[in-house]
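WARN no homologs supplied; continuing
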Amino acid sequence: MNSHFEQLTRDGYTIINDAIDLELIDELREDVGRLQDELQRRPANNKFEGNRTTRTYNLLAYSELWQQVPVHPSVLPIVESVLGAECLISSLASIAIGPGECAQVLHADDQVQPLAKPHIATVCNSMWALTDFTEDNGATRLVPGSHLWQNPNYRDGEPDVETIPAEMPKGSVLIWHGSLWHGGGANTTTDETRVGIAMNYCAGFIRQQENIQLGIPPHVMGTFTPQLRELCGLGVYRGLTGNIDKRSPAEVLYGDPPSRQIWDQEPTGGN
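OK structure emitted
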C-alpha cells in the first residue's frame, strides 16, 4: 500500500493490477448490462458524458452486489491513506464507452471547488476495469503530476499537454487524486466496449457528488453494514459535523453503535 500512496503523492495516480477477483468482476459487468436494459440507459449526448457512452448512476440503490464495491479491501485503504479514515462515497456509477466514442474533455474532479491549488486532497476517485483497458478502446487518459499545478485556469478549456493511457487488464483498479487532469479516452475500435466502474470518494467535510442519503431508499440502506452506512454519509465527521442531537444519523435511524462525540473528546470548559 505504501508504494501506491507514494505514487499517488508523486504522480497523482496509481494502478493496482489484478486487484479484484474476476468472478466478482464478471458479476458486476453482467449487472451493468442488466441495469442498462431495465433502466433503458442511453448516451447523454453531450461533450462531457459522451455521445456513445452509457452511464448508470446511484448503483448502490439497485442491488446488494454493489455493496461490495465501496468497501473493497484492495481499494478503500489506499483511498483512506489519501482522504482519511472518515472519507465518504461521493458517487458510484458504471461507464461503458462504445466503439467510435471521442475522447472526453480533460478535467479535474475537484475543479468545481473554489480552492487554491495545489491543496490537500478533497477527492480521490477510482476506476474499476470490468474489461481490459487499452489505448484503442478508451483507457482513461492521465496527465501525470498535474495535481500539483498551481491554480490552473479551467475557463481556458483543456490544457495542451501530453497524456498517457491508463492501460490495465480486467480486474485492475486505477486510483487518482481529485486534482489530477484526466479524461476518458477515444474508443477507436469497431467492436469493443470499454466497461468500467467509477467508484468515487470525497473527504468527510466535502459535499458528496450524489445525494446518497435521499437517493438510496431507506429499506435498502437498512441492508447495508454500519461501515457502508458511514461511507454513505450517515456517520459523524470528527465527532461533530452531521450529528443529530449528539448522535449519528445511522444510530438514530438504524440503531448502529454510537460514535464518540467531539464534546466527549475535548477537555471540559468553554463557552
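The longest helix spans residues 22-38.
OK
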